[in-house]
Design brief:
The complex is a heterodimer of chains A (224) and B (401). With 224 residues, chain A is α/β, with parallel strands linked by helices. Helices cover 35% and strands 29% of the residues of chain A. Chain A is built from seven helices and ten strands. The chains are: A alpha/beta (224), B alpha+beta (401). At the A-B interface, helix 2 and helix 3 of A face helix 1, helix 11 and helix 14 of B.
Chain lengths: 224, 401
C-alpha cells in the first residue's frame, strides 16, 4: 500500500500576547491509502491546528508535508486551493452547507470550483447524493433537512470530487448519539469501499470507529 | 469556476435575498433616474434656447438698453430714445448693413372679435419683415403708403389669427380695436411653432411705426429697440462698430445702449443652458456616488455575515479570484437592478414632469449614460469589499462566529 499522507517533524507555535505557545511538537504521521484513522485529543491539544495543516489551510513552522505525492508547503495559494479541491473532502462538525443554495448546488460546488459546467457536475452530484440516500432531496434547502441529513449532504459534497482523503472534524459533534452512530457506520462503510479517512475528535467512542487511533496531547502525537 | 456558473450562483443568491438587493440598489435607482431626468431637463432647456433663436441668422445685430447700466433707475421716461431719424443716420453711415428696423413694444387692450384682452402691440418701421425674415400666411406686408400716411392697419401673428378669427385666411381683412382706434388686418404671419428670433411673432400684433405714434399707443417709458442685418457675417463686427460710433455722435445717452450680435446672444443662451445641465448632472453624480457608498456599506456588512461561507468556499478549493469575482458580480447585479428600476422610475418621472410644461428632451444617450454609470458605480464601490472578502484566510473565515 502506498502512503497518501506523510507529515514529518511538524512544529507549530502561536504567539499569545507576549508568550509563544508551541501548539504542535515534532508531529509525524504517515497514512496509507485505505486507512481509517482517528486523532483523539481534548480541546486545546492542538487538534484544530493539526486539522488545518492536514487540510492544506495552514502552514507549519518546521517540518514537511506530502499529500498524495505533492509537497504541500512549497505550493502557492492558488495551487493549495486546487490541491484542497482535488485531494481533500472536508466534513465539518457544523456541516458548513451554504444556506442560500439547494442540496444539489451545495454538492456540485467542489466540481463547479474545479471548472466543471453545470451539465457536467449535476449527474455526479446526483450520484453522490443518491449513494447517501438523499436522491429525493435535491431541491431542498439545507435548513429543511435534519442534522443527520445535512451531514450526509456534507459527506456527499466531500465525496463528489473523488478526493484522495476524507478529512472529518468532529463529524458527529452536532448530532444526537443515534444519528452520530449512523454517520460513523457510514464512515466504516466508505472505508471498506476503499476511502482513506482521517477523523479528528475528542470522543473516545467516536474515535473507536477507526482502525487506528492516535492521541494528541499537548501538541505531541503518539500511538498510545 | 466558469463565469457562467458563477453568474448562476450570483443569480440564485440575488433571488434568495430580493429584499436586500432592492434596498441596496435604492441609491442606484435614484441616481439613475436623476441622471435620466436631469439630462432630459437640461437638453430640453438647451433645445428651447436654440429654438428660440433658430432662424435668427448670426448676421443680426441688436441695439438694446444696457440693463446693467440701468441698475440705479428703471425710469426710462427721460432717457434719450432711438428714433426713425437716428435709424436713417445709422443706415446712411453704414454700408455694411442690408436692412434695419425699429421695434417699439407696448401692452394694450385689444378687442378681437368679441373678446378683449391685453396683448403686446409692436410698432415697426418698414424693413422689419426683411430683418426678421417674416413670411405671410394671408394678405401681405404693409405698403409704403401704410407707413407714410399712418394708416390704421395691422399685421397679426398666426396663432392670434387662429385663436380669435379661426384661421389666417379668415382673419385677413377683419377689424380689431386698440384703445379708441379700429384697425384693419392686412396680413397674417406664417406660424413658426415656437417663439423664434427672440421675438414671439406668433402672438404679435404689428402696426406701422407712424400709426403707433399717431394713436399715442406707447407710453413715455417705452424704449424702442433697433435690429439690423449686416450684409454678411464677416461684416458684423465692423457694422456694430459703425452703429456704435453713429450713436455716440448723435446721442447723449449712447452709453446706455448695448450693441450686440445674434451670435453672442445665442452663445449666451446656450451657455447658460449648458451650465444648468452641468449643474444638474453633477447633482446626479453626487446622488449616484452616495448610492455607490450605500452599496459598499451593505457589501461590507454582507461579507461579515458571509465570512463562514467564504471560508467554506475556500476550503472547497475556491481561489481568491473566484471570491473576488463573485462579490464583484453581486455588486454589479445590484447596479444592474438599480439601473433598470431607475429607468422605470425615470419614465414615470418624465410622465409627471410633462404636466408641468417644462421643456423636456429625453435622449437615448442620457439613458445609456445613466445605465453605464449605474454599472460602473456599483463595480467601483463593490471592488473594495470584494477584494477584502477574497483576502480572507480560509482558516480564519471558517472559525469566524
Amino acid at each position: 500500500m502506498s502512503d497518501i499522507l506523510r507529515l514529518q517533524d511538524i512544529d507549530k507555535s502561536y504567539s499569545m500576547g507576549e508568550e509563544r505557545v508551541q501548539v504542535l511538537k515534532q508531529v509525524s504521521l504517515t497514512v496509507q491509502a485505505g486507512e481509517f484513522i482517528s486523532i483523539l485529543g481534548i480541546s486545546g491539544s492542538g487538534k484544530s491546528t493539526l486539522m488545518n495543516i492536514i487540510g492544506c489551510m495552514d502552514t507549519a513552522d518546521r517540518g514537511s508535508y506530502s499529500l498524495d505525492g505533492e509537497d504541500v508547503f512549497r505550493l502557492e495559494a492558488r495551487q493549495l486551493a486546487a490541491l484542497r479541491n482535488r485531494k481533500i473532502g472536508f466534513i465539518f462538525q457544523r456541516y458548513h452547507l451554504l444556506a442560500q443554495y439547494d442540496v444539489l448546488q451545495n454538492v456540485m460546488m467542489p466540481l463547479l470550483l474545479r471548472g466543471f459546467s453545470h451539465q457536467q457536475a449535476a449527474p455526479l452530484a446526483v450520484e453522490s447524493l443518491t449513494a447517501m440516500g438523499l436522491g429525493d432531496r435535491l431541491r431542498h434547502r439545507p435548513n429543511q433537512l435534519s442534522g443527520g441529513q445535512q451531514q450526509r449532504v456534507a459527506i456527499a459534497r466531500a465525496l463528489v470530487g473523488k478526493p484522495a482523503l476524507l478529512l472529518a472534524d468532529e463529524p458527529t459533534g452536532a448530532l444526537d448519539t443515534r444519528t452520530g452512530r449512523e454517520i460513523l457506520e457510514l464512515f466504516r462503510q466508505l472505508n471498506r469501499q476503499g476511502h482513506t479517512i482521517i477523523q479528528i475528535t475528542h470522543d473516545l467512542t467516536v474515535a473507536s470507529a477507526a482502525s487506528r487511533i492516535l492521541h494528541l496531547r499537548d501538541g505531541v502525537l503518539t500511538d498510545q | 469556476m466558469r463565469i457562467s456558473e458563477l453568474l448562476r450562483l450570483v443569480r440564485t443568491n440575488a433571488l434568495q435575498n430580493k429584499g436586500r438587493v432592492l434596498l441596496t440598489s435604492l441609491g442606484i435607482i435614484v441616481g439613475t433616474a436623476t441622471i435620466v431626468l436631469v439630462t432630459a431637463i437640461g437638453q430640453g432647456a438647451k433645445d428651447e434656447a436654440e429654438a428660440q433663436y433658430s432662424g435668427m441668422s448670426a448676421d443680426t445685430i441688436f441695439v438694446n438698453l444696457d440693463y446693467q447700466q440701468m441698475q440705479d433707475s428703471f425710469d426710462t421716461s427721460r432717457l434719450e430714445k432711438l428714433t426713425p431719424q437716428l435709424m436713417e443716420s445709422i443706415r446712411e453711415e453704414n454700408p455694411a448693413l442690408s436692412s434695419v428696423c425699429l421695434r417699439n413694444e407696448t401692452s394694450a387692450k385689444v378687442q378681437l372679435g368679441r373678446t378683449e384682452e391685453y396683448l403686446t402691440v409692436t410698432g415697426v418701421t418698414s424693413e422689419y419683415s426683411q430683418v426678421f425674415l417674416l413670411e405671410f400666411a394671408a394678405g401681405g406686408d404693409f405698403t409704403e403708403e401704410d407707413f407714410d400716411s399712418s394708416r390704421r392697419v395691422a399685421i397679426i401673428g398666426g396663432r392670434i389669427a387662429e385663436k380669435y378669427f379661426g384661421s389666417a385666411a379668415e382673419a385677413d381683412g377683419r377689424k380689431l380695436r386698440i384703445g379708441e382706434n379700429w384697425f384693419t388686418v392686412v396680413g397674417v404671419l406664417q406660424q413658426s411653432g415656437d417663439g423664434l428670433k427672440g421675438v414671439d411673432n406668433d402672438n404679435a400684433i404689428y402696426l406701422p411705426w407712424n400709426t403707433m405714434e399717431d394713436c399715442k399707443l406707447s407710453g413715455e417709458g417705452a424704449v424702442p429697440q433697433l435690429t439690423a442685418k449686416a450684409t454678411s457675417i464677416r461684416q458684423v463686427e465692423s457694422a456694430m462698430k459703425r452703429i456704435q460710433s453713429t450713436m455716440n455722435y448723435y446721442m447723449n445717452d449712447a452709453h446706455k445702449y448695448k450693441v450686440e450680435n445674434a451670435g453672442s446672444r445665442i452663445e449666451a443662451a446656450t451657455r447658460s443652458a449648458r451650465t444648468m445641465s452641468m449643474l444638474l448632472i453633477s447633482v446626479a453624480m453626487i446622488v449616484l456616488t452616495v448610492g455607490g457608498i450605500g452599496i459598499m456599506n451593505v457589501l461590507f456588512v454582507t461579507i461579515k455575515d458571509r465570512t463562514r461561507e467564504i471560508g467554506v468556499l475556500k476550503a472547497l478549493g475556491a481561489r481568491a479570484e473566484t471570491i473576488l469575482l463573485q462579490f464583484l458580480l453581486e455588486s454589479v447585479s445590484i447596479g444592474l437592478v438599480g439601473g433598470l428600476l431607475g429607468h422605470v422610475c425615470s419614465a414615470a418621472g418624465l410622465w409627471v414632469l410633462r404636466f408641468t410644461g417644462m421643456p423636456l428632451a429625453p435622449s437615448v444617450q442620457g439613458a445609456v449614460v445613466a445605465f453605464v454609470f449605474a454599472i460602473l458605480t456599483s463595480a467601483a464601490f463593490g471592488f473594495y469589499p470584494a477584494w477584502k472578502a477574497s483576502c480572507l484566510k480560509p482558516v480564519d473565515a471558517l472559525s469566524y462566529e
